[in-house]
Structure formats: structure tokens, C-alpha cells
Specification:
This protein is of the alpha/beta class and about 425 residues long. Helices cover about 20% and strands about 30% of the residues. It folds into 4 domains: about 15-30 and about 185-330, Molybdenum Cofactor Biosythetic Enzyme, Chain A (3-Layer(aba) Sandwich), CATH 3.40.980.10; about 35-50 and about 155-185, Molybdopterin biosynthesis moea protein, domain 2, CATH 3.90.105; about 60-150, Molybdopterin biosynthesis moeA protein, domain 3 (Beta Complex); about 340-415, MoeA, C-terminal, domain IV (Beta-clip, Beta Barrel). The strands form 8 sheets. Strands 7-4-6-5-9-8 form a 6-stranded mixed beta sheet. A 6-stranded mixed beta sheet has the order 16-13-17-21-20-18, with helices on both faces. Strand 8 (about 125) and strand 9 (about 130-135) form a beta hairpin. It is elongated. The structure holds adenosine monophosphate and magnesium ion.
Amino acid sequence: MSHRNSGDRLLTLHEALATALKTVFPLHETETASLTEVDGRVLAADVIAQLDSPPHDNSAMDGFALYLADLSVQQPTRLPVIGRVLAGHPYSNPVPAGAALRITTGGWLPAGPDAVIMQEQCRIAPDERWIEVDPAVAAKLRLGENIRRRGEDVSVGTVLLPGGWRLRPQDVALAAGQGISALDVIRRLRVAVASTGDELYEPGVELPPGAIYESNRRILIGLLRRLGCAVTDLGILRDDRAIILPALRGAAATHDVLLTSGGVSVGTADLVKEIITELGAIDFWRLAIKPGKPVTFGRIGDCLTIGLPGNPVSAMVTFLLFARPLLLKQMGAEPVEPVRWQVSADFAFRRKPGRREWLRAQLRFDPERGPLVGVYHTHSSAALSSLAWADGLVELPEECAGVAPGDPVNYLPFSGLGAE
Ligand code: AMP
Ligand code: MG
């Protein structure tokens, strides 16, 4: 049994994360997945540009390619149009000085012409055999105008995307633009999720007296899927040793992470901590945070165990701020700090310094006062309605003794925490 931090002093979130991160190692198994399967996955290695992009100088506009030096700034210039370039159909003849070439957006620019004039800026003969450019327009046209140069977006050999990057649709598009059809990604993190409590029932059944419907798994499984984890739902486990022990032992043998909620505070029916200690080890189980003081962190064999508190608000907040960075590291991604914006408080709040605290918050923009953050009318950690109302959290540091309207506070948008 190892209760390294069961003493009086609670670990700060910062200390707990630093301690836990040291024991979490990135997965190294990789797989090759087609571009249609890689959204949200973590890159196993740098992706290097194989091509210049664009692969050829081309036109950014529908217009006419010409030589800037041919245009007079004293009088209108008439140029013969000697041909046309459509996107996908390169023009292979030389373009002599004194001539113009019709070109569409994306059309490859042949050697010679050094500017493209937009078609709206010239007079075009009805049969398109010549164009005329006014001196005022000519005076404004610059060398290279409306030309996209070869390699100006990406040049061959550069790192397109670094290993450890979590792929978003635009990243996948970048790889596709290079003709890459598959990427090496780290295998999905396998996470088992269980809720514990005799009082918990699935929606859809009639509740016996004293019971409530289970909700935490809906939060945790949804957030885990958004992270790209492969989730096993272990369902609701009764507060019974004979049920919890084999369930946790079995799941630990086949998963990277075991995520439980409930059953970790100090009650007779709070068995999870006891059982993990028996099957493995618990590194710490109490943090100086609110909500969510009883968070446990440990392992059974090679499986990390993260025990979150039972109240839904506590479960969500501790998942986002404690569990998520650990999972990101294990997934092979960089566990970046959540985005924090400093904005003005549109509320008053009294509290005792000591624990880091998060309030359910909503950001709004006031035309006179700028961005303002408000908080929910109740701070109960059982209030599921507050989570649905909020678009983020206000974070109060350990030493904060209260907030007055107008005080600067840190607002953490849910979008920066993967909870959108
Ligand atoms: P516990 O951590 O087991 O002591 O639970 C603390 C509070 O959270 C109790 O009021 C539980 O009924 C509630 N709770 C625990 N687990 C869940 C869950 N999965 N869904 C909704 N409420 C829960
Ligand atoms: Mg319980």
C-alpha cells in the first residue's frame, strides 16, 4: 500500500500534474492510417514536404498575363491576346513581349510574363483578340502582381507538421495537398470508463426511491472520444467489492487508462481507492482544488488509474484540468496549458484562500466595457445545469481571497479544453 501523499498537506494542481506527468509515458506503437481516418489522431513522426506548393508559378486571378514594361502610364495600351491558359491545361508556347495571355485562377503561368492584370481592370475586345489597359491602371500594377510563386506556400523538404501534432481537418488537408494519402499515427489510447454508486441508474428505467440517473459517463465518454481515445464503457458498478474488484482488474489488463468516477471520497461505500491500492498503487488522492478535492492517481500494472469525484461538476472539471493533460501525454501529444484569457469579472464572489477553484462561467461582450465574464447562480458541484449553461470556467488561484465586480480574472474557454 503506498499513500505517499495522504498527509495533511494537499497537493496543488500544479504539483499533482508535475508528479503524475513524470510517471506517464507516451505510447510508442504506431499505425499507418489513410487520410480519411486520421482526423484527431496524433502524428507519430514529422511529415516532410515532398513537393513545392504551388508546384508552378500560377495566377491568383482570372485575367491576363503580360509584361509590365509593355504598359504605358501616359496613354492606353492595346495588347494582342495570343492564347489562353485554363487551370489544369498548361500553355507550352513562348509568350513574346508585347503580347497578353488570357489566364484563369490557378492556371500555370508560362515563362516570361511578370504580372497578371485582373480581367475587370481592362477593356476586352468583343472577340477577345486584344485588351486595352488604361494608364491609371497600368501605373498601379506591380511586378509579380496576382502571381502565386512556386513554393511560396510550402517548399520541398520543410517540416509540414511535427510529430506529436494532433491532426485537425486543415492539417489533413495540408497532407492531402502534398499528395500524401496515408500518415503514421500513434495507436489510439484505450480507456475504460466506469461509474460507481448504488444510487445510480441508467436513463430509461424507473428510479427506485433514493436513486438518481447516472450522468458522468455521458460527460467522460464524450470528452474522451473528442480526444480520439478508444473508449470501453464499463457501465455502472454497484458499491460492492465483489463487483468493483474484478471489473477494475479485468479492465486494467486490457487498457492503458482506467477512468472512474465516484467512490473516492471518505465514505464507507467508497471502495475504489481501497481496491486500486490492493491491486496496484495510489500515488496521491487529495488535491487542493475545488471542486474535486478527492482525485486519485495511481496504477494497476501498466494501466494508469484516474479516480474522479462523483459529483458531475467535479468529474468534468477534474477531467479537463487534471486527467486530460495526462492522457494527452500518453497519446504522444504535447499536454499544452489550457488557454486562459484575462477578462473583467461581472460578478462578486467570496471565498477562503487555499484551494484553486473553478466557477462555471459565460463570456459576453459588452460594447462599453469589453469582454465580461459572468458565473452561474449556484456553485453547487452537483448542478449539471451549470455545465450546460457555461461556455468555460473562471479560475481562481490558490491565494485568491475573493472577486469584486471589475476585477481581472482568468477565463478558460471550454473550446481550449476540448469540451465543445
Ligand atoms: P461519491 O464520489 O461516490 O461520494 O459521489 C458524490 C456525489 O456524486 C453523490 O451525490 C453521488 O450520487 C453523485 N454521483 C456519483 N457518481 C455519479 C454519476 N456517475 N452520475 C451522477 N451523479 C453521481
Ligand atoms: Mg458513491
